[in-house]
C-alpha cells in the first residue's frame, strides 16, 4: 500500500455526509431465488484477506469516497454492506453497531443481522486505535436506517410536446451516470431524458428536445439542462460525461451543445431563436459546441467549438445525415494520474476523429486530435471504429489509451495500432486471459467478410485467435468470466456456437448463455452474472438460473435492453443496477443481499472500471470492465 491519500482526512469527515443521505437512498432488496445445484448462503461468511490497489491507479474523483454503508431488509433479517477503501490497512477488521450496541466484528465487508427489527439503525467502524478514534467522530450522527424493499429516487418527467409536423411526444428516462457533483462525499445521479420520438440516425423525422437532470439520491433535483431544438434525440447524438476534470472535488458535466441550449441556471448558448432542423428533422447546419456545465448548479463553465466540425456531410459516408452525426465520448487520464481529459469522437464507419480536451479555470483546451483522414495516418485507419469505445492503460505506462473498435489511439493522440477487421456493434476490454500479461480486447464483427469475432492483445492489436467469418453481421457478443468451469474469461456471440474460451477460442461448453448483453457481479462468488432487460441470471451449462426479476421497471434503448446504469455505487464491491420505473416517475436502485467471503476494494477505485462507468452511456451501451478479471 502507498501512503495515505492527502484527501483521506476529508474523506473520513465526509463519511458522515454519505451516511446521513443513505437512509434516503432508493434501494430495492434483490430477492434471490436459486435453482437446483445452487445454494443461497446467508450465514456469516468466513474472513478473507482484502485485495489492495496502488494509490497511483486510483481515479482522482474517488479519493473522497466514504464507506457507503447500506442496510437492506431481507426475509431473514437486515443485510449490511459497506466499502473497502484503497488505503485501508491490510487485514482491516470492522466493528458493526446496531444503535450503540456493538453486535459483531468481521473482516469482510458485509454482515447479516439475523432476526433484527426492520427499524434498526447501523454504523460500521474500522477496528484500530486510530481508525476507531476517527470513527467516533464519523458516526456521531452517521447511522443508516434499514431500507424497505420499494424505495425509489423520485424524478421529474419533462412536459411533452408536438413537433413541427404535428407528432405528439412524451418523455422516457434513459441513460444515467453518477459522480459527486457537490463535494459532499456522496454520489448524485445525472439522468438523460429522451423524447418518445427519438430517432436512430438512419431514421428521418423531428424529435423533441433532450434534457439532462441532476438528482440527489433523496430525489431532490439540483438542475435541468435543455439541450434545445438543434440537438437531435437518439442514442448516437448525446453522449454525456460526468467527472471531476479540474480537481476541485466537484464533478462537471460535459456534452455537445448548439444554439439554443439552456443551462441549469437559465443561460442560453448562442442564438436562442436559431432553428437549423431541415424538413427531415436532421440538423446538418449551424454551429456545434462542446460545453462544460457545473455539476453543482448546472451553469455554463466553458464552451468551445466542437472538434471536428461536420464540414461536408457527404465526407462522412452518406449525404443525408446518418454517419456524420455518430458521436462517442469518454474520459481518460492521457497525461498521467493528475487530471483526466475529456474524449470526444465523431465517426466510425468511414472517417474517425478523436480529440482530447482539458478543462481548468473555466477554460477548455484541446490537447490533441487524431484524424483517420490525416496524411500521416492513411487508409488503414478508415472504417475501424465501433458503436462504442473503451478507455484503458494498455501499455502500462500510467496513461490511458482510447480503444476504438479495431484500432487504438495512444495517450499522445497518435495511432497505436489497427488490425483492419472493421466495424462492430459490441466491445469488451479487460484482463480476459490472466495467464498472459496485459489486457485483451474482444470484438464481434459487423462486416460479413471479417472474422465473426476475435480476441487480441490490447497493446498491439495482434489477434490471439479469430473465428471464421459467419458471412453475416455478428451483432452481439460478450466476454467475461461467467463460469468457474473454465480458466479465464469466456466469450459468446450471436453468430458463433457455444461458450468459448477467451484464451484460444475453443468451445468449453455447448450451451451459450441465454442473453448476450450486460454482465454483473451480483452473488457472492468471483464470477459475473448475466444482466439482460430487467432480470439477472446465473449461467449454467444446462440452463440459466434466475436470480432477480425486477418488477415495475423498464429497460432502455429498445432491443439493446440496457439499464439506466450499472455501477458499484453502494456497499461492497458488488454492483448495483438502476432501472427507471415503468411510469418514469422514479429511478429504482437494486442491490444484492447475498453474503460473501470475498473482500475487494470498491470497484469505483479501480481506474479502468470508474472510467467505464463514465463512458457506459455512449453509443451502444456496454457493461463496465475492471483492470482485473476476478475480485
From TrEMBL:
Residues 136-153 have a biased composition (Polar residues). It comes from the Bacteria. Pfam families: RGI_lyase (PF18370), RGL11_C (PF21348). Residues 130-163 are annotated as: Disordered. InterPro entries: Ig-like_fold, Integrin_alpha_N, RGI_lyase, RGL11, RGL11_C. SUPFAM superfamilies: Integrin alpha N-terminal domain. One of its GO terms (biological process) is carbohydrate metabolic process. Residues 64-137 form the Rhamnogalacturonan I lyase beta-sheet domain. Residues 151-628 form the Rhamnogalacturonan lyase family 11 C-terminal domain. CDD domains: RGL11. PANTHER family: RHAMNOGALACTURONAN LYASE (EUROFUNG). This is Uncharacterized protein. It comes from Kribbella antiqua. The lineage of its organism: Bacteria, Bacillati, Actinomycetota, Actinomycetes, Propionibacteriales.
Amino acid at each position: 500500500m502507498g501512503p495515505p491519500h492527502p484527501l483521506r482526512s476529508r474523506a473520513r469527515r465526509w463519511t458522515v455526509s454519505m451516511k446521513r443521505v443513505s437512509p434516503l437512498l432508493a434501494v430495492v432488496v434483490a430477492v434471490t431465488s436459486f435453482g437446483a445445484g445452487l445454494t443461497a448462503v446467508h450465514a456469516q461468511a468466513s474472513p478473507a484477506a482484502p485485495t489492495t490497489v496502488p494509490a497511483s491507479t486510483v481515479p482522482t474523483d474517488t479519493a473522497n469516497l466514504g464507506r457507503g454503508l447500506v442496510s437492506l431488509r431481507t426475509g431473514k433479517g437486515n443485510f449490511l454492506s459497506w466499502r473497502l477503501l484503497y488505503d485501508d490497512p491490510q487485514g482491516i477488521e470492522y466493528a458493526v453497531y446496531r444503535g450503540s450496541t456493538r453486535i459483531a466484528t468481521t473482516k469482510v465487508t458485509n454482515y447479516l443481522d439475523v432476526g433484527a427489527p426492520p427499524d434498526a439503525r447501523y454504523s460500521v467502524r474500522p477496528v484500530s486505535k486510530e481508525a476507531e478514534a476517527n470513527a467516533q467522530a464519523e458516526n456521531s450522527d452517521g447511522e443508516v436506517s434499514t431500507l424497505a424493499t420499494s424505495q425509489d429516487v423520485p424524478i421529474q418527467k419533462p412536459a411533452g410536446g408536438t413537433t413541427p409536423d404535428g407528432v405528439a411526444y412524451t418523455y422516457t428516462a434513459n441513460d444515467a451516470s453518477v459522480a459527486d457533483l457537490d463535494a459532499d462525499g456522496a454520489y448524485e445521479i445525472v439522468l438523460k431524458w429522451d423524447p418518445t420520438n427519438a430517432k436512430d440516425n438512419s431514421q428521418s423525422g423531428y424529435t423533441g428536445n433532450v434534457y439532462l437532470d441532476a438528482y440527489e439520491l433523496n430525489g431532490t433535483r439540483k438542475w435541468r439542462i435543455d439541450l434545445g431544438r438543434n440537438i437531435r434525440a437518439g442514442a448516437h447524438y448525446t453522449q454525456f460525461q460526468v467527472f471531476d476534470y479540474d480537481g476541485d472535488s466537484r464533478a462537471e458535466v460535459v456534452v455537445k451543445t448548439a444554439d439554443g441550449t439552456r443551462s441549469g441556471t437559465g443561460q442560453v448558448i448562442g442564438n436562442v431563436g436559431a432553428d437549423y432542423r431541415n424538413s427531415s428533422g436532421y440538423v446538418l447546419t449551424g454551429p456545434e459546441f462542446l460545453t462544460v456545465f457545473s455539476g453543482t448548479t448546472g451553469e455554463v463553465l466553458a464552451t468551445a467549438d466542437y472538434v471536428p466540425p461536420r464540414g461536408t456531410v457527404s465526407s462522412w459516408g452518406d449525404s443525408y445525415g446518418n454517419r456524420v452525426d455518430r458521436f462517442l465520448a469518454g474520459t481518460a487520464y492521457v497525461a498521467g494520474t493528475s487530471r483526466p481529459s475529456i474524449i470526444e469522437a465523431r465517426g466510425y464507419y468511414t472517417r474517425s476523429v478523436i480529440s482530447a480536451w482539458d478543462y481548468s479555470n473555466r477554460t477548455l483546451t484541446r490537447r490533441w486530435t487524431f484524424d483517420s483522414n490525416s496524411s500521416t495516418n492513411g487508409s488503414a485507419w478508415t472504417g475501424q471504429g465501433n458503436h462504442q469505445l473503451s478507455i484503458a492503460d494498455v501499455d502500462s505506462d500510467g496513461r490511458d489509451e482510447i480503444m476504438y473498435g479495431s484500432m487504438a489511439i495512444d495517450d499522445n493522440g497518435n495511432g497505436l495500432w489497427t488490425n483492419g477487421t472493421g466495424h462492430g456493434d459490441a466491445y469488451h476490454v479487460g484482463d480476459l486471459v490472466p495467464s498472459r500479461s496485459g489486457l485483451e480486447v474482444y470484438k464481434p464483427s459487423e462486416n460479413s467478410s471479417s472474422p465473426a469475432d476475435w480476441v487480441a492483445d490490447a497493446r498491439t492489436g495482434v489477434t490471439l485467435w479469430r473465428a471464421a467469418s459467419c458471412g453475416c453481421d455478428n451483432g452481439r457478443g460478450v466476454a467475461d468470466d461467467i463460469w468457474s468451469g473454465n480458466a479465464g474469461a469466456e466469450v459468446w456471440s450471436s453468430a458463433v456456437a457455444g461458450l468459448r474460451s477467451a484464451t484460444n477460442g475453443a468451445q468449453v461448453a455447448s450451451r451459450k448463455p441465454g442473453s448476450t448483453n450486460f454482465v454483473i457481479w451480483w452473488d457472492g462468488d468471483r464470477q459475473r452474472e448475466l444482466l439482460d432487460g430487467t432480470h439477472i441470471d446465473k449461467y449454467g451449462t444446462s440452463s440459466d438460473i434466475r436470480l432477480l426479476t425486477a418488477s415495475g421497471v423498464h429497460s432502455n434503448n429498445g432491443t439493446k435492453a440496457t439499464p439506466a446504469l450499472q455501477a458499484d455505487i453502494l456497499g461492497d464491491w458488488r454492483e448495483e443496477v438502476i432501472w427507471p420505473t415503468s411510469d418514469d416517475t422514479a429511478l429504482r436502485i437494486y442491490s444484492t443481499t447475498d453474503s460473501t467471503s470475498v473482500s475487494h476494494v470498491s470497484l469505483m477505485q479501480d481506474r479502468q472500471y470508474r472510467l467505464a462507468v463514465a463512458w457506459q452511456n455512449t453509443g451502444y451501451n456496454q457493461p463496465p470492465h475492471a483492470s482485473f478479471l476476478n475480485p
